[in-house]
Amino acid sequence: MSTTPDPTHAVWIKSSHSGNGGGNCVEWAPSYAASGVIPVRDSKDPSGPTLAFTPTAWTSFVEAIRHGDFGTV
To answer: Where is this region: Disordered (predicted)?
Structure first.
């Protein structure tokens, strides 16, 4: 039995940095944070793979990107 929630029916939030030009389109499902998993996907491929971050790892990832620390993520 999997302990990872099924994000099929998740409410996905598009990153505020994702533009409408088809470039960097990242979505996440914040409602899953209480379960210990943050699902993340490419909004251009909603049926494609989903990454799963712990809330701590997701916070670290977002902070690194926010500060331009691309080599540390």
So the answer is: 1-21
